[in-house]
Amino acid sequence: MIFAPLMLVVAVIIKLTSKGPVLYSQVRSGLHQKAFYVYKFRTMVDQADKIGTSVTTGTDPRITLIGRILRKTKLDELPQLFNVLNGDMSFVGPRPDVPEITMDYTPEMKRIFLVRPGITSLATLHFRHEKEILAKVSDPDKFYEEVVVPLKVKLTMEHARKNSFFFDLSVLLKTVWVLLPLGKIWPIKEHELVKEVKKKYSL
User: Fold this and answer.
1) What 3-state class would DSSP assign to 118?
2) CA-closest candidate to residue 118, choices 155, 88, 85
3) Cα separation of 80 and 95, whole Å?
4) pLDDT band at 49 (very low <50, low <70, confident <90, very high)
5) What pLDDT digit, counting tens, does each position of 111-135 carry?
6) Phi, psi angle pair for 39, to nearest 5°
7) Domains of the chain: which residue ranges?
């Protein structure tokens, strides 16, 4: 109810500035590997998946003007509050991935499915500049598949292992902090796994 007026304004702006639906939905694997639709505000041109790659970089021309603002402020994630109300997601938890990727998880990796997925997570927090990183590599699709996905899985598994009320609270508070102006001045400490990847590939 608190965010309803803001969501209504965003929906109207999206509808007035570009053709296509207001919301974008995609099937993800959730708790106990149950499939569900995750919702976001549409930030790309209509039918974007048919006119480009599956990987989105920070300079992707398919992203609309309002879409860039929504992505930067994370307002495109607001419709996932409906996923929370529906019980498919929580505020904090491992980010749900697409079945095409989760079907190849090892038995150890499938421990992720014992935790309800969330809007923000350890992976979301420490790899929030993913699109900017992908824009720096020559083959974003290959880099995403071979480097980003394994890194996200490691961070997600760490989240599943540390899962607790206080851990989730710390992730939530850090997420709010990095979205604030002060978060840009005094950024949170970068995760070692992310630092290793950036150093290895000179990112």
Assistant:
1) strand
2) 88
3) 12
4) confident
5) 899 999 999 999 989 888 888 888 8
6) -115, 140
7) 4-200
pLDDT tens profile 67-84? 999 998 889 999 999 999
Task: Indicate the pTM of the whole model.
Answer: 0.84
Q: What CA–CA distance (Å, rounded) separates 50 from 112? A: 30
Neighbours of 74 (CB within 10 A): 15
For residue 106, give the 3-state DSSP assignment. Answer: coil
Q: What are the residues whose beta carbons fall under 8 Å from the beta carbon of 125, sequence distance 6 or more?
A: 171, 174, 175, 178, 188
DSSP 11-67: HHHHHHHSSS-SEEEEEEE-GGG-EEEEEEE--B-TTGGGSS-S---TT-TTB-HHH
Of 131, 122, 111, which is closest to residue 31 (Cα–Cα)?
111
